[in-house]
Amino acid sequence: MTALSSPPPTRLSVADLRGSSARRRRETTVRLAFLAAASLSILISVLIILSLVGEAWNFVSQVDPALLVERGWFPRRDLYGIPAIMAGTFLVAGIGMLVATPLGLGAAIWLSEYASPRARRAIKPVLEVLAGIPSVVLGYFALQVISPTVVDTACPGATDPFNMAAAGIGVGILITPLVASVAEDAMYAVPRSLREASYGLGARKRTTSLRIVFPAAISGIVAALILGLSRGIGETMVVSIAAGATGGSLFSIDPCAPGQTMTAAMTALATGSDQVRGASLAFPSLFFVGLLLFVFTLVLNLVADRFVRRFRVRY
Amino acid sequence: MAATPRNQAITAAEAVRRSLEGAGRTDWRSIGFQAVLVLLLVLTLGVLAWLLVVVFVNGTPVLLERGTDFLTSPLASQPERAGVGQAISGSLMLMAFVAIISFPLGIGAAVYLEEYAPDTRFTRLVNTVVRNLAGVPSIVYGLLGLAVFVVALGDVVGPGPASGRSLMAGGLTMAILVLPIVIITSAEALRAVPGAIREAAFGVGATRWEVVRSHVLPYAAPGIFTGTILSMARAFGETAPLILVGAVIGGFNVRYDSILEQLQGRYTALPTTVYDWARKPAAFEGNVYAAIVVLIVVLLLVNALAIFLRNRFERRW
Amino acid sequence: MVTVTPTIDEQVRDKGPTIRLVTTGHHLDESEGIAPAAVADGAPMTFAEDEVVFRLESVSCFYGSFRAVRDVSLEVPRNKITALIGPSGSGKSTLLRSFNRMNDLIETARLDGRILYHGVDIYADGVDPVEVRRRIGMVFQKPNPFPKSIYDNVAFGPRVAGFKGNMDELVERSLTRAALWDEVKDKLRAPGTTLSGGQQQRLCIARAIAVEPDVILMDEPASALDPLATLRIEELMHELKENYTILIVTHNMQQAARASDFTAFLSMGEDRAGYLVEMAPTDRLFTSPQHRLTEDYITGRFG
Q1: Which chains sit next to B, with 3 or more Cβ pairs under 8 A?
Q2: What is the pLDDT of residues C1-15, one digit of tens each?
Q3: How many Cβ atoms are within 10 Å of B59's Cβ, its own excluded?
Q4: Structural domains of chain C in order of their starting residue, each with its CATH number
């Protein structure tokens, strides 16, 4: 625009204010480029759903329904007892939540209500380090260290180095930082004025934390737990290493025995042999299980999202 | 609760004196509660410490003993000869894929969502979709990679003996895995830019892209940078998707003549090597720990780098 | 001294330099049973032994090494409304919060001197601040009801204190005393946050009353409210003083003049610490202040 170099016009017309068309073109191009990038995320979701559903349908339409509720999951023998691996998933996730709920919420309450600013600055990064440990590492630790400890203390007489309890505890350790961080955010966001009102009435810190702050932050805390559960359900490497049962598993909820989760079943299928594509319905079954997993975690995440939105809006 | 008679000041004073001074009972419930909290925290941190101790105590001797040989040797069936050379180069190439593909796309998508997008149903949909994609278990991305890159695009991505299970397939899969995280962290960094800066820039007659390029992006750069580095660290440690798209478990010994061949050929990565060795007999134990040490050291370095760079850039503003 | 009870409209309209003509709506004389000692020039105001609720002896409040309040000595009489006024930075809120040991919640806060409550030094070793706060209640500047029902808001304090009697009755009594019962009696289960600003503040007053304190501290209780809600709070204070001793911080001089029996004027010294300039029965402070500083403040020449 020549606005700076020429004297102000005595009469202005629309044409004067139109601006440079080159500049406009560039703006539009840039805008479209960014829009394309954003649309990619939708494309990816669609692809995920399509690829899962496609092969899963392949499986469902060809499989003998009786095989689906067989008590065992042995895909290479054409036994597709889904309940067996679902039980495994929920067992491990359940144990994981038993570990992560007290550890995570305890850390969250302490960090939010009791820790001095210096302590907070020191401890929070440490929790982030814990969060950054790859699941393979935790899986090996579960196998080498946690499992023998479990066998010694809680499962005497177990013959296998693999057991679901060790895997569950490993998963619990993995998701603790996630639970702690979301729950702590929720509690920290509770306004100071509520705490002051409580102290002003003669309540102690313990009472204020448990009866005012915790309930006020409850939506965020519930979201933290649901997110933890979702993560625990989707966790793969810890169970693949520590829970054993790579050939298949029977329906069982014995924590002292080896077992398989949905995710471990998927890795077993992929690594068992190089001919995943060939073997009967084993390949499509992989996608069927994947679809189930996707649906579970999606539902959980949507629910957690609702809760998070509720706690963010209030303040 | 002591009833305090209001209009007889003398007895009120007496009652007050008695109750205030007699309140010396130790509050066991509060002490107990705080003790429980601290115990839980110590437990959490203790497990972390235990893990690190076990890993380093078992892994460092092997590294010291074998030195660079361990870092450069390929996979092998005897533990004394097996090393993480192929794994490291595989992981590095995967990271390159991730950086080249997902960073521009992710940051671009974030810029659109934060700077350009009007508040329409489409925008809200994209936001929800991205958030949910970030929560999808990583193994599902492996399935996606398997179906799309290995099977459907197998001949393009990994022709010949690899039959689709190539490094390119792995790289593309990881890039897609990381994309939602990059979008979310970049969007957060952009959101943190004060509105006043944008207003000032618009006020002097800049176009939206000029505002973004000259003011918003520079201001948000440290945050975006940190986010991308951290998401790369996350990708570095991912195993499950790579297993599904066919990273080698077992061992391979191929010589590649060109980069293209390497991209289209079999490969392995550090975390998948750890997984592989973890399932081998006890003789490999030392190797596993040593590989884990390498993995953890790399991750710690990357995290430290991210924090250092963020501090360094932040000071300029 | 003119004893006129202005209508509400007149009270709202009267502002500014005409403050000397605004009266408090009642006047103080010996018939009320309080016989303040004659105020000699510069001598602190004292009361009869059995009328004193608080006695402050050279109280200084520190945040770390910064002194926010310097050497305040005063007495607070029972069943009266005492106002603390002064410009920003004069330490009024800090001083108020030291009465119920709320400053303890700030890590670097420290107190020198003594605060005697019914003769007991509330900062002495062995005194539990929690007990102190059950007897000395507080209402804050911005209404802060808990995200619970109206009933649970009022019931929280007594429950925590271990109250075993008839809670419904206690809740009703507290809400009635706070002039809120009629408006909420049909919706006790509704969340406290659904009330209007003025109602929320009365809910907070009811909540404070429910633990049966004998003192209520108010930190600018009406500053976040509109003029009509403000006046209702002031009327409420007038009713409350029958059963409670009220100490209120306000930056609104007209409010102090309207509503309080005694007023203490604090100002900020050169060391940025607040100090007590003078304290007197309200109408005397506003009509014939002893200190030039006080006169300047109340006529609006500064602050």
Answers
A1: A, C
A2: 343 444 433 443 444
A3: 23
A4: 50-145+218-298 (3.40.50.300)
